[in-house]
Amino acid sequence: MNFSVIIPAYNEEENIVPLYDEIKKSLKNIGNYEIIFIDDGSKDGTLRTIKELSKKDKIVKYISFAKNSGQTQAIAAGVDFSKGTHIITLDADLQNPPEEIPGLINKLKKGNYNCVSGWRKNRRDNFKKILFSKLSFIVRKLLFNDKIHDAGCTLKIYERSCFNDFEFYGESHRFITTILQLNGYKVGEYVVKHKKRHSGKTKYGAKRLINGFLDLLFIKFWNDSSPRPLHFFGNLSFFQYFLAIFIFIEQIFKAIIISKFDLGPILVLGVLLFLNATVTFLFGFMFEIMLRSGPNGRYYKVKEMSA
Length: 307
Ligand code: UDP
Ligand code: MG
Hints:
Elements: E1 3-9, H1 13-26, E2 33-39, H2 46-56, E3 60-65, H3 71-81, E4 86-89, H4 101-111, E5 115-119, H5 127-144, E6 156-159, H6 176-182, E7 187-191, H7 207-225, H8 229-258, H9 265-293, E8 302-305
Parallel strand pairs: 1-2, 1-4, 2-3, 5-7
Antiparallel strand pairs: 3-8, 4-6, 5-6
Helix pairs in contact: 1-2, 5-7, 8-9
Magnesium ion is lined by residues 91, 93, 95, 197, 202.
């Protein structure tokens, strides 16, 4: 086993060196590993600090984005450029203590898991964040029967194969474990400590609740209809065609019986259903075409990176 520790960092200047020190201390006995910082278009001295570390210590590598592209894309880039057989992710702000990493590795090995996800049972965040996390658990359980308590905890370990063809979109870093389980991977949980942010500010506000909910809805749709959106939209459109044709036949019979063609609301409904069925059908086709020509969920632009 060798490990790639992936750390997304957006304006985390003050946190980089203390985090590096803690990782070095905690991973002394785990064998080969690399640390990859992904500077997500920071405006402070984050990149400069990472570069200085990288000059001093060859296990420190970095990727720097041309502009802020979000935590999901930062993790995607880290995964793409990493070399380890196993990938460990954690936040740059020291909320996820590196001392938990050996325990995560152990749990993965012993339980024969493809991924082990940290569970911040005693979370050191404000009431709003904890409430959002509980809501997310309820929705995930209802939609997917997902039993992972804390999908949003960045501190996780993955076998590299988890990311074969994995598509990163929106803020889907919060639901990687949900997607992995839907794809047949075995995911375990491990209780980890959680600390207050070492320095700097959180990058997320209340919008995360809405974005998170939208991402979950999409995962549900994707899982139910993938890999054929045409099937999902095609079925929806045929149902509408069927209703429309039923209305047309009923209207024709009625016109024959009363010898008068009536342009009433039922006929208008039939026409609307027919048109909507056609639009729905075309949507299915368009999605199918987009599915086959998409950029595999990579939207980041690298400005520079270490050798
Ligand atoms: N982050 C990032 N790009 C962003 C937002 C966040 O790389 O656009 C990083 C951030 O620097 C941190 C991690 O993602 O290392 C988690 O962010 P944060 O601590 O703000 O989230 P919270 O702990 O408040 O949920
Ligand atoms: Mg944080």
